[in-house]
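Internal tracking record. Fields below are filled automatically when a chain is submitted to the structure queue. Please do not edit lines marked as system-generated. If the sequence contains nonstandard residues, flag them in the REMARKS field before resubmitting.
Queue: standard
Priority: normal
Entity type: single polypeptide chain
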Amino acid sequence: FDHSSMNVCVRTLTGSESFFELGGEATVLDLKLAIQSRIAVPRREQRLAAGKLLLHDGLRLANVAAEVTDEDGILQLCLVRLDSARPGMLEGLASGWLALQDLGEELRGDKELVLAAVSANGWSLEFASPLLRADKDIAMAAVQSDAAALEFVSDALRRDQGVVLAAAQRNGWALAFAAPELRADKEIVLAAVASNPLSLQFASEELRQDPAVVLKAVSLKGCALRFAASHLRRDTQVVLSAVRSDASAIQLTGCDLRTRSGLVMQALGANADVR
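SYSTEM-GENERATED OUTPUT FOLLOWS
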């Protein structure tokens, strides 16, 4: 394939064809602008596909040439024209002035529209069709926008480690909506308490007995100690870490008054040493 220039055939769904000659570095956007100029289809209403692959604006056409170039050296692409209202809907959903719940049932089952909506406001996943709430691409975009969107994904995706981990890293509170087996997953729980220490309360009983997990939580927020297993609330290392973070956490320990006083003094002494 000659990368210095390329010939492109764009075929519409009605079968009409238009031919374009572009430079070897041309992108999909360059082609869309040429189509807009030649056949008066506004760029925002265009979707170009190479076989089953939808092409995004920044993609260099040369990158798909090998798969869709015919024996005459011409790239064969398909042009789908969107409803003229669609670009406005996409823009509205992405900017937040149009809400997914305001759209009809059919549109709430449209992946492109739902993806735009949840990328801007993850919580809007609640209003997507059941099929799209079970779509991993949609779920990932939603939880990366708002971790609490994990509440609205399908049961299967609440058991998906990748989706739950992404949500936990965004805000550990999402752990409340994870499947029980993933609330017992140490990697996920550590990520959750790192982003929100109080999410320790949603970890499995086994992990609330894990010193490493509990230390991570209480070192960031001492009052997370209330969610630790009872024996760890009496553990010197854990209690000291909690008190160094928040002196009032001493009230959450299972220690007697004399022991509490000694631990507070130790913590204050350690803080003074650090300063």
